[in-house]
Amino acid sequence: MSKFGIVGLVAYVVDTAVFVVLVLNLESLTAKTIATAIAATVAFLGNRFWTWRHRARSGLAREYGLYFFFNAVGLAISLAILGISHYGLGALWPVFQTPLADVIAANVIGLAAGTIFRFWAYRRFVFPPVPTPRPYATELATAGYGQRHGS
Question: Alpha-carbon distance 15 to 3, whole Å?
Answer without folding.
Answer: 18
